[in-house]
Design goal:
rod-shaped
Length: 173
């Protein structure tokens, strides 16, 4: 009973009319939008006082307002739970995105490293190929030179043999 008397004194002292409510909201720095426990508490106190005053004059209206208040509290609780759930969902998704980002960055680094290794292998293989081509070109030039020298030698030998054969034929005649 003592708590109820203190509550009534606060109500009367606070002057729960529109200006008094606005002053209380400002003094307690209640937010104007979103979920604000201070604003909710002040409006709840104001609504409770309205229910009390209405119940004194008409019990049926007081009970109806009481049901409206209870329904409003259930609705607000549902919105609060939905809000908290959506915030938690958003945080989970942000964490998943960060983890996914970290994974993708790691994979990108791995692929970059693999690409550099493959480019290094390509350079090595190109160098090997160029070395083989140089060796083959040198070998071919040496073979062509040997072949040319051999053909030249065989032509000279052929000319000498022709000359000797002509000398032998001329000597017989």
């Amino acid at each position: 009973m003592q708590a109820y008397r203190e509550y009534l004194q606060r109500m009367q002292k606070g002057g729960y009319h529109l200006a008094g409510l606005a002053r209380q909201l400002q003094q307690r720095q209640a937010r104007e939008t979103g979920l604000c426990p201070v604003r909710r508490e002040l409006y709840t106190q104001c609504f409770d006082e309205l229910i009390r005053q209405t119940t004194v004059s008409c019990a049926e209206r007081g009970l109806l307002l009481l049901r409206v208040r209870d329904e409003l509290q259930l609705t607000l609780s549902a919105y609060q739970a939905l809000y908290e759930s959506s915030v938690a969902f958003g945080v989970r998704k942000a964490l998943q995105a960060e983890q996914g980002k970290a994974h993708l960055e790691k994979r990108t680094a791995e692929l970059e490293e693999e690409k550099e290794e493959l480019e290094k292998q390509v350079s090595e293989e190109k160098a090997k190929c160029e070395a083989i081509e140089r060796q083959e070109t040198e070998r071919r030039e040496i073979e062509e030179k040997k072949h040319s020298e051999e053909v030249l030698f065989l032509k000279r030998t052929n000319q000498q043999l022709k000359a000797q054969l002509e000398c032998i034929i001329a000597a017989k005649n």
